[in-house]
Amino acid sequence: MAHRIVVLGGGFGGMYAARALKRKLRDTAEVEVINAENYFVFQPLLPEVGAGSITPGHAVSPLRFLLKGVSVRKALIDSVDFERKVVIVFQGIQRRPTEVPFDHLVIALGQGVDLSRMPGLEEHALKMKSLEDARRVREHVIEQLEHAQVTRLPDTKRGALTFTVVGGGFSGVETVGEMKELIDRSLRYYPEIEPSEVRVLLVEYAGRILNEMPDRLAHYATRHLAKHGIELKLNTGVASATHRQLVTTEGEVIDTRTIVATIGNAPLPVVQRMGLASKHGRVAVRRSLQVEGRDNVWALGDCALIPLKDGAAERADFAPPTAQFAVREAKRIAQNIAATLDGKPAKPFSYRSRGALASLGAKRGVAEVFGVQLTGFPAWILWRSYYLALLPGIATRVKVLINWLLDGLGARSVVQIRAHSKPPLRYVYFRAGDRIYDAGDRSDGFYTVISGAVEMERTDPETGEKTARRIGPGGHFGERLILGATRRKTTVRAAEDTKVLVMNRDEFLMLAESFSAFRDYFRPYMEKRGVKIPLDDGPEAG
Amino acid sequence: MAHRIVVLGGGFGGMYAARALKRKLRDTAEVEVINAENYFVFQPLLPEVGAGSITPGHAVSPLRFLLKGVSVRKALIDSVDFERKVVIVFQGIQRRPTEVPFDHLVIALGQGVDLSRMPGLEEHALKMKSLEDARRVREHVIEQLEHAQVTRLPDTKRGALTFTVVGGGFSGVETVGEMKELIDRSLRYYPEIEPSEVRVLLVEYAGRILNEMPDRLAHYATRHLAKHGIELKLNTGVASATHRQLVTTEGEVIDTRTIVATIGNAPLPVVQRMGLASKHGRVAVRRSLQVEGRDNVWALGDCALIPLKDGAAERADFAPPTAQFAVREAKRIAQNIAATLDGKPAKPFSYRSRGALASLGAKRGVAEVFGVQLTGFPAWILWRSYYLALLPGIATRVKVLINWLLDGLGARSVVQIRAHSKPPLRYVYFRAGDRIYDAGDRSDGFYTVISGAVEMERTDPETGEKTARRIGPGGHFGERLILGATRRKTTVRAAEDTKVLVMNRDEFLMLAESFSAFRDYFRPYMEKRGVKIPLDDGPEAG
């Protein structure tokens, strides 16, 4: 019977491992890839998607198309039972678990993002990890331009036109460069925005950017970004964030509506749940890429800590989390699994980086290849060619190339296909003194204070008399929204650093319809304020 | 001082009106378009987007690019103060209202969709009105194929492979035809799906499809759809829908995970709020396109009821809601506003349809042009050429043409870029006897019964003894999710037709953290069931 090899994850590591396994083992093995999406995403192109120089569809390729002869299962991985040798998954809308048996298991799930160490960052920052993240960054940037074009409020305009990227690694540098280019090329459609009003910042905790690259190239990149009007804040971390400010570890408060966080790599919960040996938040593997203590479980790519020599201890002794390495690791795993099935010994993984490339936007880049350092346009061309060559499938290559050429010619489209709507229940952070809303503003939610306190001020429409009220944890405000009021009657400021829960009207009414306790609690509260909860005759607790 | 003309809406009516006004009046008037999106969407191409034969970005064009010399304001329209002659809008994240003054106002906001007459349809049907709707239909269809490919449950597979389109007008016929083509061309990537397992239906309340077209063409279309394996259910309406079934007015229950509703046109709330004279849910205008009772307010397109002759009474006496008419109405409005500004009389709108076109998928169409009827491939080519010519901007035309040609050659990409995630609080409908969940299923929410009743059955893991419990309105089930349980321990069926509120775990915990009443209510309830609410030490009501 054919051996069953299951690969978890369809990124660089997983996709190339499945391909190499199928080529090597042919009909002697069944190879199956399990992935949450039905496509392979070309991670290094995400900053380009974020800047609209290529469309989301062109940064991805269907796994079923790339992996001929390999089964592809689009499913969420729940857990692995290593004793029974099954992966437990959930497929589509189906809530019944499905068990997928394996003889050998390859774990290539990558890393997640955890921004929770910095208050407010998780809630208010955009990420650059998935295709959807990248798409959202582009739409968000266009939204800010649209808003800055029409607003008459100088503070609002300044916040809308300040764009912050956090993290000076490859992803952060490429994102900030591409973002600046998108803005520069779009301004012609926004006559009310002066180029001098746009502020783009890169915030990096270390003393330099592009840590993985030689000093000379990092310096070139630094100069290039500065020359293109990007402010660099080195030796600077994020202390906290709200939906309109970023506070640095230096205590500086930056008014910004756009924070893109490229930091905070963390293990994925699904990998943690597997309970495998781990180190520095990554799965500990041997040099053969076998997981410590298990001979039929393998790991590679960003989720694994892969020693490049015996007794590895320093950071440089382990494989870096790059596509270049993942592709090589995939080949080694395929060879080692084939050897193991033949009863032969697995060989240790070894590879030396051939170099590093980064695009800086505006047709410039930096590159180090086989020890040779390149900068500027040649480095950028090399960057594009390299990734074009690495793209899977000729059709995708041609499409991306055509798109790149078209992008070089005309203006970039400023179509904002879909704004990101706010979740109906959400936590929002305010700093002491922040305006929460003013009388006359649109009602955008019903607020409950979780921590901190707010100061509410109301002017009597008849006497002109002002009354103020402080609302602390557990207190509510903004309840007139529930009546269907579209405008605020009061002005609310954060008296302290404050965390609130904001709820939309529809959800409030759903809860009032569904929960008698919720209604009973709010009825006297609302009646005191002259607000009758609609649907008050909902079901009673049965 | 230049006259200020404000156009509400950037669809066919609004965009062409703004264009014609600017061309006609040049610097003697300021023309401004206010639209919720920053792009013009080419409505007739939505079924093609829904089938992936063109990408969403190519069915739209930036308004700023189409409307040179016209101001474009991306904003939500709140209301119009006709006395003070201002439009009140909300811009971007800004919650302070902005007033936009006008001398003349053109209303071109189109129509909305209201499916609430049929229980469950609003909650469980996909629409075909916006670009986002169309994109979602495509992703949903691919999701069903992915699921059918891997499931081992025959019922689930049948539901996933049954696709229903409601409404036999242009939009419904084109959607069902394009959808069938998408499925047929994708099946080669899904070896586990037999073509005979796929069922595609078109449900139409009237006795025929394409009501606006001559009988002969409607018959051709009917035969074409049948030949391509599309089931037609005429004289059939929708009685109700759940997330896995559609019940027809004939009492037939169709297991289907996909319902696309192209019916239910209804006035938009923002237009209703204006309080203008209306008839059949549309703004009543005079033959000059001036709104009844107001000389400086004009309306056109789908939102207006436009008489084509004096004393109009029959349906045929009014302009049909098509792009062809909207474009002509736009020209008439521009001429009439120019005349009014010159102190000259406005002229009545009159236009006779030049014909009608519909695509049927699989490179076939029907067309009636200047009285000549065409069917099949020539009609389809005519359809494409006509819309290509109507597309605004050469760049867009070239892009769409290239895409169409590319689509004709290779396979269609089955990349499913983004699944639609369920809202965190949602109403779900079940029919009596429906399975809600089984023991061992994934926990997908905390349930509260709004109306109807469910039957819960639990098997004691030690004794094997079965206990049953009926839960009526106001009762809850599925609370173990709150503990973080990922699997169900009980089996739940709908005992009657039942409506429930389903809430995700994160939102439950947010509410428990924020509302002491919510916690106090649930604490004893949960403790009885051995569930301790995490974060139980949240803030107390202040």
UniProtKB/TrEMBL annotation, chains A, B:
SUPFAM superfamilies per record: cAMP-binding domain-like, FAD/NAD(P)-binding domain
Keyword Iron-sulfur recorded: no
Domain named Cyclic nucleotide-binding: residues: 425-511
One Pfam family cited in the UniProt record for this chain: Pyr_redox_2
Presence of the UniProt keyword Flavoprotein in the record: yes
Domain of life assignment: Bacteria
Protein keywords: FAD, Flavoprotein, NAD, Oxidoreductase
Family: Belongs to the NADH dehydrogenase family.
Protein name as it appears in the record: NADH dehydrogenase
